[in-house]
Amino acid sequence: LLAAFKVLLYRYTGQQDVIVGSPIANRHRQELERLIGFFVNTLAMRTDLSGNPTFDELLERVRETALGAYAHQDLPFEYLVEQLQPNRNLSHSPLAQVFFVLQNTPRRNVELPGLMATPLKYQAETAKFDLTLYFDELDTDLQGTFEHNTDLFDRDTISRMAQHLRTLLEGIVADPSQRIAELPLLTEAERRELLFEWNDTRADYQHDVCVHELFESQVERTPDAVAVAFEDEQLTYRDLNARANKLAHHLRSLGAGEGDVVGIFMERSLEMIVGILGTLKPGAACLPLDPSYPHERLAFMLRDAPCPVVLSQQRLAVDLPETSARVVRLDADWDDIARSSDEDPRMVVTPESWIYVIYTSGSTGNPKGVCMPHRALVNLVDWHLAAATKSARTLQFASLNFDISFEEIFSTLATGACLFLVRDSMRVDIPALGRFIDENRIERFHLPVMVLQKLAEELFDKPQALLSLRDLMVGGEQLQITDDLRKLFTRLKDCTLYNHYGPSETHVVTSFTLPRDPETWPVFPPLGRPLANTEIYLLDSHLHPVPAGVPGELYIGGTCLAHGYLNRPALTAERFIPHPFSGAPGARLYKTGDLTRYRKDGN
Predict the structure, then answer these.
(1) CA end-to-end span of the chain, whole Å?
(2) DSSP assignment, residue 415?
(3) Are 242 and 297 in contact (CB under 8 A)?
(4) Which of 126, 90, 94, 96 is nearest to 9 (CA)?
(5) Burial readout 188-203 (b: 16 or more C-beta within 10 A, e: otherwise)
(6) What is the tens place of the pLDDT at every residue in 145-199?
């Protein structure tokens, strides 16, 4: 029983060094057995569960530990603590916080002259430890009871834990030669829910088109609507498409097409949006090159992702690192570009063609170029069209070097709405940003959590500020609900807050919609559920699904996956692994490295 309980703790926590406390009667001399008094001592049973042993092998380890502990049972637990001197904390007991108790003392009837005595059961009101498992031997049965600290565990968690222990014991009895990581833990109903029901996200999307074709379809529907605005300039859908077409034909004449990467070394402007669309139309992928990046990083990216062409602006082009690429300045060279056709180019571009190569920060080594196909972004845009406010005036806030910028741009241009650009200086000037939102009646905004918090702090005394907003989507870091945010959204009665999550290798994959009443918001809202055609799995180190409430590493599958890392086949194979739960040929999961847990509601 103790070995099985330790397997349960190992499977819940991933810890391979497990200490469980256990009381012992400390009456190992026959003369003491009937003596009235409290002799009980506490044993700290420590077991090494490393190496994924079989249960039989683990049982032998636990047996040796128990026999050794019994041999020293009269060494006071207090003396052991005094000698080991662990870091003491009033919130938990030293050495062991989890306890196991086996009540196997033979039951005797109490006989007193003239009296009949009956054992009285009582309900303990205070947990002595974080978690205690009691087993009572009752004739032919074993009855197990969990006692738990209600500040740490709720009833549903303990009920699941009891069921998992039962499933584990049944698996052990059926075959004790199984390795402990392979022993069954989940019921069939749980496994079906975790792997299939919570991942049943299948939805129709435009799987046979590329993201720029979504824009071209919108051009036909609303040619005269304003597509993009920057300061005192703007372009209609027709004008934006015509300029992008001219650039596409020009790039094709320079040898940039399907399978190529075109650098975008530009500040935010109308030309930047023209440059993105003009790059995608002949089948090339965008390589964002932030002018504010260090010269060494830009040089590395240009070496790692050779570009036949880099798009820039006249005043920036002189700062570009040395490159063999042809530099096209969209402002100074426009007269030459304008000679090209303004008709939609007829190029062979597929949903598996890359839309961009975006480099990670490089915080864990050299930056890696993530190669994202059109398929993933088209699916995300279609999800937006079905789930969020349509035709909303959208602020394009993110730097082009972050994948969220492509979501901002194309989820707007696929709806006939207007995309508003702001200078980089305004992105860090919160009062000016607030004024811009109000003056331009911005309705939709993707932003980092930190920026949302600053807006709430600095505009708290302006009751008319931000009232045009309808949809706010945050991501990039953990959302924490503060009093300032609650006050802001109490005032923004028509605005909905969405919590998004997604690494660069998959783009956005989950969303949680916060309820209307900010007073009900938890301090740390969940990440939500997987988006359309996206799969989320929480797995242990052996790729087995973990139960709800138990931390597991987050793996992502479905339409959202990138192709991998540019020129890094070994790393791609390490992080994009074969899908263990899918029979589809070539199906993969992305290993995020993030630890998460399911709530009981599936978020």
Answers:
(1) 33
(2) T
(3) no
(4) 96
(5) eebbebbbeebbebee
(6) 999 999 999 999 999 999 999 999 999 999 999 999 999 999 999 999 999 999 9
